[in-house]
Design a protein that fits this description.
The chain is 56% helix and 9% strand. The protein is an alpha+beta fold and 231 residues long. It has a domain of 134 residues. The chain has a four-stranded mixed β-sheet, covered by helices on one side. It is elongated and about 100 Å long.
Length: 231
Amino acid sequence: MGYVGKLDLKLRVQTLRRQGLSYGAILSRVKISKDTISRWCRDIVLTKDQQLRLVQNKIFGQKKGSLIAAENKRKARIARTKSILQRAKEELGHFSKRDKFLVGIALYAAEGSKGEGGFSNSDPSIIRFMMQWFRRFCRLPLSKFRGAIWLHERLDEKGAKRFWSKITDIPLRQFHKTYIAEDKKNSRKIRKNIHKFGVFAIRFTDAEKHRHIMGWISALFHGRIPAYVNK
């Protein structure tokens, strides 16, 4: 670059600086080093408004950079989670009849009623699985089942009943009265996990089947599983 060309470039850089542009903004418009821009513009005094705008732009740029970094981390976390879930699904493989039988026993041991026939949970997929499990392995007819909902006040009771009826196939006429949990007005505790459709309880009226299930639980934890489920 000749002297005249370099002088024109210097004047252009100084003009941009006098307009209040940051060194970074100038650098994006001219092909010279940041050190050169700094040297050429070191004697230029910006107005207070220009200085304030540069500070605000810098803060905005930092915030924008933080938001972009946070979003990139979120996307990376989602991608890792999907990869882990897919790998876990592949590791689990196909569920045999025996596998489902044992899973149902373990779930009942954890969440089932020990005094009478029943199972409660807020997760629709678990409730659906257990309903199918009761009908398949306990051979209980639909007429034996009752549904019960535990719901926070101000939530849609009718909607919750329709939802759980669809999940379980239990007719609405076989639902017990919904238990409505009132909000504690004077409590400082903030409830974070208020389930839209509440907690659902599958109940069945068959004492013999319930004792049978309890026998399976006892057998499972002593390593003795009824042989007929392998047939």
